Amino acid sequence: MTRARSSLPEPSTEALAHSERVGRLISAQIAEAGGWIAFDRYMELALYAPGLGYYAAGARKFGQAASGGDFVTAPEISPLFAQALATQLAPVMAATAPRIIEFGAGSGALARDLLAAFDARGIAVDRYDIVELSADLRARQRARLPDPRVRWLEAPPRQVAGVIIANEVLDVMPVRLFVREGTGLRERGVSLQDGALAFATRPADAALAAAVTEIERDVGTFDEGYGSELGLAARGWLRSAEQWLSRGVLLAFDYGFPRREYYHPQRLMGTLMCHYRHRAHSDPLWLPGLNDITAHVDFTAMAQAAQEGGLEVLGYTTQGHFLLNCGLLDQLRDCRTPKTASDAQRLVSEAEMGELVKVLAVGRGIEFPLLGFSHGDRTHTL
To answer: Are the C-beta atoms of residues 252 and 169 closer than 8 Å to each other?
Structure first.
């Protein structure tokens, strides 16, 4: 089930055995489905299969490579991220309710640092709710967050006031893959060839074809051989946000682009990417269960989905602009060291996360402009 990757670290014997168990589960699913499964089903199993998937099993995900992590998110880089975010959240909570809901809280670093930032400012937070699919991550979060204000929800909330945060959540939602072949459209999925996982295509169904046609109306007909992905699960998630939020703001931070950039002709086979021990590669079928699998976010589709659900788009910009608008440089001056300066650079630099990660704000009942989008708002590009 494995494929040699000479530039990537070798997995341990235990990790390799785990991947083989994941591979057997996926192979059984392929056999039960008649020899082929859509890629979104493969991605769901590889990432979230109970007890086996990448986010459901015990392997360390977040953190530096030296500590066994596969990638680092903004909250792990520096508490400056949470401190700047708190500047934006404070007026929203004052106008709605002192409640925060975080989807996919990862290591718990953002929750810890946000609560510390509000405590330092004397701002009350009544509840900090976490919606986390992974039992393993929930256990780690509980160990890191011995705070009575923090609670874990079994399902998304219903009609609450306050703030919802999703940091690098949308890009790990399963995606469907397509490729244009002549005048036809095919869906890329996963089959078995000589006992090994392999990509295979079949004619696209009506739902996939309709979604691709919608995109082509905006960006033009795709050329022969052009392939990419569709984040239909992420669209559904944003559409559902209307059921969760009675009044307040949802902030989504993620890697992505507006639609015309996302489906640019030069981005020939989409944005699918994997991360293993801080190394990026493009083969999601290699070592299933040991790799993070991501796809960038079509933020035009996310904004449309939120509007379809009855929410208003309140802002869209880069992470760099958002954090600078929220006073990151002021916070840096208060605690400047060589490390904090370097960390801040990673968060806001156009060559690093500052440009690559975007921030989308949607909500309802907010009658004032959001500070994070005061300069550099790109809503017009959606």
So the answer is: yes
- Exposure of 347 by Cβ count < 10 A (0-12 exposed, 13-18 middle, 19+ buried)? buried
Domain count along the chain: 1
pTM of the model: 0.94
What are the φ/ψ torsions at residue 44 (nearest 5 degrees)?
-60, -45
Instruction: Report which of 85, 69, 113, 145 is spatially closest to residue 347, judged by C-alpha positions.
Output: 85
- DSSP-based three-state secondary structure for 350: coil
Answer whether 187's CB lies under 8 Å from 204's CB. yes
User: Within a domain: residue 315?
Assistant: yes
Show the tokens assigned to 63.
């953190």
We report the CATH number of the domain holding residue 40 as 3.40.50.12710
Pair 245, 364: CB distance under 8 Å: yes
pLDDT at 69: 52
d(CA 129, CA 93): 14
